[in-house]
Amino acid sequence: MNIVHQPQTTPSNYPPENLSPDQLHSILTQIKDYQTNHGSLLKVIGSETPHSVHLQPVSTSVFPTVFSRRLFNEAVDDLQLIYNELYCKLAEDVEWLYAVTGPLRRTEPLVDALWHVYEEIQRRRQDYGSQYIEQKIHAGVFRSDYMLHVRSDTTIDSDDEEDENWTQNLCLKQVEFNSYSCAGGCHADKVAGMHRFLARRGLYDFASSSEDPEEQSINIRILPSSLPQNNTINGIASVLASAHKTYGSKPFSSKASHIAVLMVVQPNNFNIADERPIEYALWNWIDGEPIPTYRIEWQQILHHTQLTPTGELLFFPPENGDSTITQPVEISVIYHRAGYEPHEYSEDINGKEIRTRLEVSRAIKCPSILGHITTIKSVQQALTGPGALERWLTKEKAGRIRGTFVEICSLGDFMSSAKNPIKDEELAENYILKPASLEGGGNNIYGADIPAFLKTMSPEGSEKSAYILMERIRSPLNVYGMLMSSSRGVTADEVVSEFGVFGGCLWERKESSSEQDKCQVIMNRVIGWSFKTKEVTVDEMSVVKGYGCFDTPYLVD
Amino acid sequence: MNIVHQPQTTPSNYPPENLSPDQLHSILTQIKDYQTNHGSLLKVIGSETPHSVHLQPVSTSVFPTVFSRRLFNEAVDDLQLIYNELYCKLAEDVEWLYAVTGPLRRTEPLVDALWHVYEEIQRRRQDYGSQYIEQKIHAGVFRSDYMLHVRSDTTIDSDDEEDENWTQNLCLKQVEFNSYSCAGGCHADKVAGMHRFLARRGLYDFASSSEDPEEQSINIRILPSSLPQNNTINGIASVLASAHKTYGSKPFSSKASHIAVLMVVQPNNFNIADERPIEYALWNWIDGEPIPTYRIEWQQILHHTQLTPTGELLFFPPENGDSTITQPVEISVIYHRAGYEPHEYSEDINGKEIRTRLEVSRAIKCPSILGHITTIKSVQQALTGPGALERWLTKEKAGRIRGTFVEICSLGDFMSSAKNPIKDEELAENYILKPASLEGGGNNIYGADIPAFLKTMSPEGSEKSAYILMERIRSPLNVYGMLMSSSRGVTADEVVSEFGVFGGCLWERKESSSEQDKCQVIMNRVIGWSFKTKEVTVDEMSVVKGYGCFDTPYLVD
Predict the structure, then answer these.
(1) CA triplet B381, B497, B383: central angle to 5 degrees?
(2) How far apart are the first and last CA of chain A?
(3) Which Pfam families does the UniProt record give (chains A, B) (predicted)?
């Protein structure tokens, strides 16, 4: 008897434990070779010379990890468009943003730098003559990250492995919202393509013999239809393409030869495979003409750009040589993949001037400086306040996304509380301490480490305002996976995944008497997703450190 | 004044010498990043572990190297179809092949192994009952390699840099013809895609200031139209797809689940990026259904295959685990990328049995054992004999390809000659000594090294029959290039290129009274090309050693 086990629930024998060495070797080899041939790679840090570089595969799951189909669809079909709308509107609500993040300027250099740039832009715009043209249209490539959460009215029963409906008790909880320089989209696209290929290739078809004559051959088979398609590379490119088209069809400046997208990047990025595919997609843009796309390192911007009196940003590509001879390019869209670290705004590289020049220009910014400020953690915290969302959203929409919030507090809120996780290690287990100004998991303090960490701080509390406390998400138990990374090898263990949905927007600043009504959304799309998995015993989702692995959700009902 | 220099002749200032460090850095970075993202890579030997591997870019030219458009077209549009026809016919002319290569069996283990396999197949076929079905259709993926040659009636004038018509005095001369396990097609495809992208990207547009006010800005621009497209990956896949379709639409054996192509490879190949893309192309085959394609290492074949009494080759993919449970696959086409080295036929791995099992099966072989034997160097030599080609080709076709031959002799021919390059170092300069049984440049002895090498041999001459002497091709002077490789860095020097044309064929063995008339060509196509460039001061074209670099011809009239 030959049964194809196409699970409606979490498969208890997945990934299979009885792989032969031949099978495992074959799967691992196919993964490494696929990654080699499709650029699912990282540069080995320190290996690059003018003529060569060493590369290694990015961390990836060996098997796609189970995830709820219902919640995947909810995030993609429903939540993301509301989140996109919210963050477009936040990005034009300067009054509210300043109220929430302004207090951090005193302790947080990055927050201070961003507001400094904002203020400088307002001054410059007034200095310009009447000929200066302000760009009122902005673009965004956002990513909202979720984890599966066991509803608090559900008992977690670790012995209940045969639970037929494990996804029913689950909901999505937001880890964070990123509105600036969202990474991982290209890797997620390639790894999903890989898992879908390997499934089509039959590598996830498993046979196992059984004592029971009725089940002499039980097969597990992951059908490619259980693995969602991922076109995030083209998705991100499509936002930039739309912005490019919105800018105009030809240069406004008579000096420029053509218009182009400019991708601003950090120097010597070892994660080039998460950036270049977007350039290639635009140069190969099939939905119309190819879209010229250039790339400049953050600290080289002042040397290679000029502003015209009317605000156009002229760019002199380094590869074109002598800028006294060659014609510049007029930049239509600035796509930020740098400028999110405090040192990038330091005096020695004139960092605030770099950002100011880009920001004051007529180019469409992806995103604007205010769009950037929305990514600060204290914004996420403020949105959890009672009635906060209704400032921009209908009650119905507000309700939908409020369901994805966990409790987020400032440390001050807890100081006066009886239940104080700051001092109580047992209570602290339910929390994560995150910097209020930064995104990303690398700077977090987890659970029981919180009280000891806080003791290192001065008692007056100015440092403490730089942190928020976030309730820990209760991930479902008994989800197993097999992960491989260059630094940590192959591991088979209980795992937890993070699901990110990419959104793409264009919006325009309108004149209005009320602050919360100055944004008109022009375009609002879901453009892709990413899915990362780590062992439950590890706190960080860092891919660079080999903890987090790019993955594909294996959707089950 | 702005002149676009689209050269009709060899551009004397190409590649440009006055690149700024910024320009060169940008071009080299774009090349490395493109190669990273498109799998134009080699595994670093010794770096692979179960969970990781290090990769580095394959050697490549920084700038496309000039080549004659007329001769490119001649090789692709004209010569290759004749060469394809010739080698299909050779591969069924066992009498002639044995006369030419049989004498090498005594000294050459590889030649002896191939004929041993051929003879064993004849015996086995007779042992089978009447139910056995012989596969009479064979496939070939060939590659004919050429270099530019200055006609001998032309004076080479090294000072004549301004020669307006340098391509007029050039013709193509064949370096070798490969009919077995032709490599380089995937790399050539990717590197051509890269150079075309970089041209489109504007990286080969150069401006230089001039003292002359009339030419204040002279631009060089390589238009993508000067760089031919290369679709060799799909080209090779298309031959296998045609063979697969020719085999049948479903398994002949009731035991098998489906039919599939089997790619036979060497173990632990660091050059995986030249093999895997063909598998991916077949699994993603868009011209019809996906074509299942498996891969097996040479020494694992006996363990993972079975022959049915009627001759079908059943394959048990290692990734499917326990072969007592899973259904085998029936192999439609065997694509050889292994079995070309003497040690692969050794007793300890039962190598002759490996090849015999594949060969006796009903699968279509790409190519057959006789097709393999045609790649022996002494065949190339024999074809240069007076009237030799007319055994299979019309006088007109024979004349066309005879024009690409250089003088090839056995050492014996020279022993009695007054002009004996074997002893005379000056004469030896005009020759290359090549093993009569092997293909590939790694085993050659060049020019002045020949006399000393021959002195190491025994006087009776049995070893000497293992070598042929080939006239050296007189490459045009003053072709410059810039090359980059992981092992040798970036070099700018005078260069020489080798142009290979890929052909794809299907043919059928017919009953006929005459040996030379037993082949009916079913399909004859040109499926791609490769182009490799090295410094003139280096003899070998080895890409692995970093001498030869994948390149794209920059076609000039």
Answers:
(1) 15
(2) 25
(3) GSH_synth_ATP (PF03917), GSH_synthase (PF03199)
Q: Is A254 exposed, middle or buried (0-12, 13-18, 19+ CB in 10 A)?
A: exposed
Query: How many CB atoms neighbour CB B128 within 10 A?
Result: 15
CB atoms within 10 A of CB B449: 15
Number of neighbours of residue A400 by Cβ within 10 angstroms: 18
Among B20, B52, B219, B276, most A C-beta atoms within 10 A, so best to mutate, is B52
Nearest residue to B469 (alpha-carbon basis) of B401, B413, B425: B413
Q: Which two tokens stand for residue B534?
A: 């090295």
Question: What token pair was written down for B491?
Answer: 């070099």
Architecture of domain A407-471: 2-Layer Sandwich (3.30)
Query: Of A78, A139, A111, A120, which is closest to residue A379 (Cα–Cα)?
Result: A111
Q: Which DSSP category does A52 fall into? A: B
- Give CA separation, B337 vs A366, B108, B269, B293, in Å: 48, 21, 10, 14
Report the candidate in B67, B64, B66 with the shortest Cα–Cα distance to residue B203.
B64
Name which of A38, A171, A117 is nearest A357 in CA terms.
Answer: A117
- C-alpha to C-alpha distance for A119 and A356, rounded to whole angstroms: 10
* Residues in chain A within 8 Å Cβ distance of B34: 276
Was A470 annotated as part of a binding site? yes
Tokens of A245: 């088209």
Give the whole-angstrom CA distance, residue B450 versus residue B467.
11
Q: How far apart are CA B385 and CA A347, in angstroms?
A: 78
Please report which helix (H) or strand (E) contains residue A191, including its range: helix A185-200
Q: What DSSP string runs through A197-266? A: HHHHTTTTEEEEE-SSGGGSEEEEE--GGGS----HHHHHHHHHHHHHHHH-SS-SSTT-S-EEEEEEE-
**pLDDT for the residue A303:** 95
pLDDT tens column, B55-78: 999 999 999 999 999 999 999 999
Phi and psi dihedrals of B8, rounded to 5?
-95, -15
* Inter-chain touch B32–A54, beta carbons under 8 Å: no
**Torsion sign, CA atoms B361, B367, B371, B377:** negative
The ipTM estimated for the assembled molecules is: 0.93
Can you tell me the distance from the alpha carbon of A400 to that of A251, in angstroms, rounded to the nearest whole number?
43
- The tens digit of pLDDT for each residue in A269-327 reads 999 999 999 999 999 998 778 999 999 999 999 999 999 999 999 999 988 766 666 78
Determine the residue of chain A that is closest to B62 in CA distance: A51
Look up the pTM and report it. 0.93
pLDDT digits (tens, 9 = 90+) for A440-499: 556 788 888 888 887 777 666 566 667 888 888 999 988 999 999 999 999 999 999 999
**Tokens matching residue A233:** 């590379």
Angstroms from A39 CA to nearest CA on chain B: 4
Q: Smallest CA–CA separation between A193 and chain B, in Å?
A: 12
Judged by CB atoms closer than 8 Å, whether chains meet at B23 and A490 is answered as no
Which residues contact residue A120 at a Cβ distance below 8 angstroms, ignoring those fewer than 6 apart?
A352, A356
Residues forming a β-bridge with B481: B493
Q: Taking 70 as the threshold, does the pLDDT of residue A553 lie above it?
A: yes
Domain locations along chain A: 2-395+473-556, 407-471
- Determine which helix (DSSP H) or strand (DSSP E) holds B187, and give its type and residue range: helix B185-200
Q: Assess contact for A261 and A236: CB atoms under 8 A.
A: no
Beta strands of A94-195 (E only): which ranges?
137-150, 170-178
Q: How confident is the model at residue A346 (pLDDT cuts 50, 70, 90)?
A: very high
User: Is there a contact between B52 and A322 if contact means CB atoms under 8 Å apart?
Assistant: no
- Rounded Cα distance, B520 and B508, in Å: 5
Residues of B in contact with A206 (CB under 8 A): 321
Question: B395 to chain A nearest CA, in Å?
Answer: 45
